[in-house]
């Protein structure tokens, strides 16, 4: 148990307040199941590094050190956890995209710096490695959890970009939600020709255009266009733009911003609405002339 969490991280976690979690574990020991993810060291030493669920490990250690919770003795089910410490082990050869897909605490706002470091380590591995699991292996490893599979697809899509562009781990972490949103939308999957078997976008031309929307780019006149897509809401708007030919041309061929492309859609909708209103008004005028009171 004590080897799982470095002393400084343990002290930092204790100072952050673990009363709520230790209370939960002492009342319901099963809450620990499936919450701790560790990485086996490559030297086959039998040691592990916690990459997710370090608060749960720290809470267990705190209960082990005190032997009680608020003066009440611990149950046998809780003390049994001190020796068993149920963990999920990610072996060194595991696809880093899948390990990232299993992370929970390390992707939450305000995560412990230790976990952020482990996430960044996995992102660097993602940049260097190209292995990926087959669909049956992925389904079995994810226990057919659709959310885990979708997160895996998002990280695989991010991996494509990282291997084509030099991207720092912190930047990659900020880009991941955009890829997670992109692989979940049929408009973008069709545009970039997503392959579920390869977990890969196949359309290189479209993919290059997509990357230009995610990164700063230079316009034909030499000015810098900032990233067009920075939040998940922008991905949703991109789907609308892709469905409208005029807006799509404005964004992808003329170097307009996403806002400009959306304005093209809005202008077209307004013109259509105005034409419909005009037709209704003319029809009403005609009906009035035809059926109005006669002298």
Describe this protein's structure:
The structure is a single chain. A hairpin with a 4-residue loop joins strand 6 and strand 7 (200-201). With 295 residues, the protein is mainly alpha-helical. The chain has 14 helices and nine strands. The model is unreliable at 1-5 (pLDDT under 50). The chain has helices at 7-16, 19-27, 54-66, 76-84, 96-102, 113-128, 135-141, 146-164, 169-182, 186-192, 204-214, 232-242, 245-252, 258-291, and strands at 37-40, 48-52, 68-69, 72-73, 88-90, 194-195, 200-201, 217-218, 224-225. The strands form four sheets. The chain has a three-stranded mixed β-sheet. It has a two-stranded antiparallel sheet with strand order 3-4. Strands 6-7 form a two-stranded antiparallel ribbon.
Number of strand segments: 9
Low-pLDDT runs: 1-5
- Please state the average pLDDT score: 83
Strand content: 5-15%
Shape field: elongated
Report Rg.
Answer: 27 Å
| N- and C-termini, Cα separation | 100 Å
Please count the helical segments. Answer: 14
Percent of residues in helices comes to 55-70%
Which labels suit this protein?
3-stranded mixed sheet, 9 strands, two-stranded antiparallel sheet, disordered N terminus, 295 residues, 59% helix, mainly alpha, single chain
């Amino acid at each position: 148990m004590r080897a799982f969490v470095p002393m400084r991280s343990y002290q930092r976690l204790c100072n952050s307040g673990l009363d709520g979690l230790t209370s939960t574990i002492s009342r319901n020991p099963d809450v620990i199941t499936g919450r701790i993810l560790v990485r086996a060291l490559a030297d086959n030493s039998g040691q592990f590094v916690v990459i997710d669920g370090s608060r749960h490990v720290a809470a267990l250690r705190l209960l082990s050190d005190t032997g009680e919770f608020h003066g009440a003795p611990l149950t046998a089910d809780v003390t049994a956890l001190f020796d068993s410490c149920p963990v999920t082990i990610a072996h060194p050869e595991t696809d880093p995209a899948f390990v990232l897909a299993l992370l929970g605490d390390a992707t939450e706002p305000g995560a412990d710096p230790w976990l952020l470091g482990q996430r960044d380590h996995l992102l660097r591995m993602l940049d260097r490695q190209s292995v990926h699991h087959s669909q049956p292996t992925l389904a079995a490893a994810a226990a057919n959890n659709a959310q885990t599979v979708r997160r895996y697809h998002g990280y695989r899509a991010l991996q494509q970009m990282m291997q084509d562009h030099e991207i720092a781990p912190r930047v990659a972490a900020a880009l991941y939600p955009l890829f997670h949103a992109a692989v979940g939308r049929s408009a973008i999957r069709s545009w970039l020709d997503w392959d579920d078997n390869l977990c890969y976008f196949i359309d290189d031309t479209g993919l290059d255009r997509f990357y230009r929307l995610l990164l700063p780019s230079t316009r034909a006149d030499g000015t810098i266009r900032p990233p067009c897509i920075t939040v998940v809401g922008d991905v949703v708007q991109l789907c609308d733009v892709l469905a409208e030919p005029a807006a799509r041309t404005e964004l992808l061929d003329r170097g307009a911003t996403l806002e400009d492309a959306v304005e093209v859609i809005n202008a077209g909708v307004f013109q259509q609405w105005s034409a419909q209103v005009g037709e209704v008004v003319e029809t009403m005028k005609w009906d009035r002339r035809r059926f109005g009171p006669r002298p």
